[in-house]
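Please, structure for the following, as tokens.
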Amino acid sequence: MNSVYVRIFLYVVSPVLTTLVALIPGWGVTYTDGVLTVDLSTAAGAAVAALGISSAIFAKWGVK
């Protein structure tokens, strides 16, 4: 498999996986009595992790 395909796959999957962590019931998102509550620190942590993973991928394969 060409490294370009691996890089594209990781660019697409890394933000999705880190965002899904924030959606684990009871950890980042709760729904009780008709009210959806989002824990901002968990959501921000997931966004920073996604950015960090994407930056690491770019640092590894983004430079010629």
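The chain has a mean pLDDT of 78. The radius of gyration is 15 Å.
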